[in-house]
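To the wet lab folks,

You asked to see what we're planning to order before we commit. Fair enough. Below is the target structure as tokens, and below that is the sequence we designed to fit it. If anything looks off to you, flag it before the synthesis order goes out.
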């Protein structure tokens, strides 16, 4: 009898000890280490594709505050431990949905506060931040990369804002970033709106050509690039100095590789024109009006077959998305696309809170975020979530309330080391490919301009490839410039000079 009790005691102690050891040995979800002058932030939650939770966002936020005070920490690298599979697949919305449906919306609000505070911190950080977008970079992954001056895409990048499929909204201040960064068909945030509504998954080459990445580097070069970044020294420890940003950009360019053979955007000139004409964010009163625009293209027999098919397919695709989410996305593009960064981040925080609180009993808001996440990510159903609410079920006043603060729910961002905001990123455009407007202003002059010096296609491409400061020597410049010219210009049959085609 005594021997049996001893055996049971030993077995019980061994089981408890093994659980303690397992708990102690569980890896930290974010790793921080020093590499000479660089500070490396490594997302380390590979089983969840590095989906951000509150612990991760707070750990990064708090550590970056400390790095900001250190003269020896001269730049930051954000990467993941499971490259090239994923940088970050998003925020851990499955945990958020479970908490919401259990009535624990407080934990959800703390999560969004931590995540969006980190986004704002990265956007306003006083030292260069370089993100390796090597693998899945979606949702929250976009949030920890797009606001950084240096965003490195690779052949493994999969970039998307897929929130329409889960009844959420394009958050992490993406509706501030995309209207300002996207290079093509985006004069009135058309491509920005198209990307957040469709959830299009872009390759690394496409993200780079569209301005969502500043550089294109192969996966094989990332370790050497990281080493090189750690060798950089800011002059007189002036980390925010333009000269040091230039130095970082030049170092990344040392490891840039040509785009894959035949690389191009998936959109034809005709398809880009459909996006440009139908998705004008600042003229659309509603998603219904967007559908009407697409219908007009489909029924217009003077339009190319390519354009009609694309418009039809785009509408069918949008009909599978959350009606409420699409309306909110349009409103946020309209507001955040013209507001300053701090207000945009705070507006996202209010909106996320309202989407979470809608899960509580008695809510009259037509939001199905928590239910759709349960369907798609927790129960892992393969079929699209069957949306109960239609476009007309969201009234104008409800739409406004969804993107507005509630007096009964006080919300604020975590205290940052900087006290700045802006309407335009101060450094981004110096290190990415040129925008459509820049190319056209040089090629044919601003609309309505007279006496603009005539230019040939060849000269314009050579100028942006070899002489234009920001794009000089950057891979893929010729691809983007040629596409912009094909979309907007034609060549005079006698002189070969470019003139606007529409």
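Sequence we intend to order:
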């Amino acid at each position: 009898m005594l021997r049996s009790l001893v055996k049971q005691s030993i077995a019980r102690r061994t089981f408890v000890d093994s659980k303690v050891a397992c708990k102690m040995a569980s890896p930290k979800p974010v790793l921080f280490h020093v590499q000479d002058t660089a500070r490396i932030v490594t997302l380390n939650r590979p089983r969840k594709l590095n989906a951000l939770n509150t612990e991760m966002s707070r750990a990064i936020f708090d550590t970056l505050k400390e790095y900001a005070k250190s003269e020896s920490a001269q730049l930051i690298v954000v990467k993941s431990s499971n490259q090239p599979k994923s940088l970050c697949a998003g925020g851990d919305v499955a945990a958020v949905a479970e908490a919401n449906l259990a009535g624990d919306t407080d934990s959800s609000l703390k999560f969004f506060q931590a995540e969006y505070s980190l986004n704002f911190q990265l956007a306003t950080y006083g030292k260069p931040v370089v993100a390796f977008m090597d693998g899945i970079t979606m949702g929250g992954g976009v949030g920890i990369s797009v606001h950084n001056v240096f965003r490195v895409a690779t052949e493994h990048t999969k970039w998307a804002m897929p929130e329409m499929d889960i009844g959420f909204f394009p958050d992490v201040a993406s509706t501030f970033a995309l209207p300002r960064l996207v290079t093509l068909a985006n004069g009135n945030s058309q491509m920005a709106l198209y990307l957040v509504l469709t959830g299009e998954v872009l390759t690394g080459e496409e993200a780079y050509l569209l301005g969502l990445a500043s550089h294109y580097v192969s996966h094989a070069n990332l370790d050497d690039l990281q080493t090189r970044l750690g060798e950089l020294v800011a002059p007189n420890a002036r980390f925010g100095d333009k000269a040091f940003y230039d130095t970082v950009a030049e170092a990344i360019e040392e490891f840039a590789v040509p785009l894959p053979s035949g690389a191009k955007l998936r959109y034809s000139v005709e398809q880009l024109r459909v996006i440009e004409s139908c998705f004008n964010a600042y003229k659309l009163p509603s998603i219904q009006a967007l559908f009407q625009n697409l219908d007009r293209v489909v029924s217009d027999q003077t339009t190319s077959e390519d354009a009609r098919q694309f418009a039809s397919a785009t509408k069918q695709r949008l009909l599978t998305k959350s009606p409420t989410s699409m309306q909110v996305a349009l409103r946020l593009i309209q507001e955040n696309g013209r507001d300053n960064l701090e207000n945009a981040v705070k507006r996202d925080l209010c909106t996320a809170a309202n989407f979470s609180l809608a899960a509580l009993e008695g809510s009259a808001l037509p939001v199905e975020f928590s239910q759709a996440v349960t369907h798609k990510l927790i129960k892992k159903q393969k079929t699209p979530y069957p949306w109960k609410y239609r476009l007309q079920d969201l009234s104008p006043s409800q739409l406004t309330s969804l993107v507005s603060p509630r007096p009964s729910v006080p919300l604020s961002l975590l205290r940052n080391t900087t006290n700045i905001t802006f309407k335009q990123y101060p450094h981004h455009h110096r290190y990415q490919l040129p925008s459509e407007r820049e190319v056209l202003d040089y090629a044919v002059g601003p609309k309505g301009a007279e006496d603009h010096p005539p230019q040939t296609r060849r000269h314009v491409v050579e100028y942006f490839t070899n002489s234009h400061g920001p794009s000089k020597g950057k891979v893929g410049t010729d691809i983007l410039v040629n596409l912009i010219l094909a979309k907007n210009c034609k060549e005079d049959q006698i002189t070969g000079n470019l003139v606007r085609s529409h």
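Structural context that might help your review: The mean pLDDT is 94. The two ends are 95 Å apart (CA to CA).

Thanks,
Computational group
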